[in-house]
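thought: fold this chain, then report.
action: predict
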Amino acid sequence: MFRFLRVALLAVLSTVAIRAASAVEPAADTTPKADASRLVFLLQYVGADYAAAVADGKIVDHAEYEENREFAGQIADLLARLQPSIPPGKSAAIEPPVRRLVELVEARGDPRLVRDASESAIPRLVEVFELRAFPRDRPDPARAHALYAENCAVCHGGAGGGDGSRAKDLDPPPARFTDQARMSEAAPYVFYNAITLGVANTAMASFADSMSDQERWDLAFYLWIFTLGNDTRPALPPAVVISLRDLATRSSRELAPEILRRAAAVGQPLDAEGAERWVAELRARGLSLPKRARASVSIARFV
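observation:
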């Protein structure tokens, strides 16, 4: 049963017994910006998770489908609340794809179309509500390593294989961040939102009050270290650059074709596996991310 996204979001910081006192559930923030953040998170969730519920117009997992229907209803409610705050000139880029996603879920539509609708609306919401979709500073691997050891290893295991000492007590079980295929479909922004907002109907509360914004980004990027296995050597860098925004918001699978094209243009052959490994290197080890990186600043290759 494919529950990777839910498990990943639940288990990234699934240390209820250890940090119950510090994982404070803040009072609900109902400002437009907060609602927009929740809407983005739900769109990310349904866009990725719905494919586990429906195939060829048929429900293949009833529990998954009902959960996605529930989240689609929350998406519709949040959109209705946000409508007065969306500038008239921007509503045409936001409301139709969001409504389309809700309709597709209700009609058991094609998962690819659901994902397309999600990916169409999210960048517009980020722009209109000025959401922070990438970190202000480069992710700090050393700090993230300490955060992971303190908060996550007890469930996920030191190597991210989902085999920590508390794993047997968790249902659903902890995510395996060593699953390269599934991590290739995710992006740090999804994990950042889960850590920041918490996950409804799960044991994971918001950690916005117990970790700084930068610490949450550090940890969200660091999870790709577990896709690299035991090889500690940096990947041979392609002669291309990539923005911090793209590293945070786009999946490795999405970024790989662009990296391949750029590498080929400068005469440096690279396969898809190598491109995805390079993205994982940048996220997890950050050897070449410039300090105070901004969206307009390109990231130099490894040196």
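thought: worth noting. The chain has three domains: 32-128, 134-227, 242-299.
final: tokens above.
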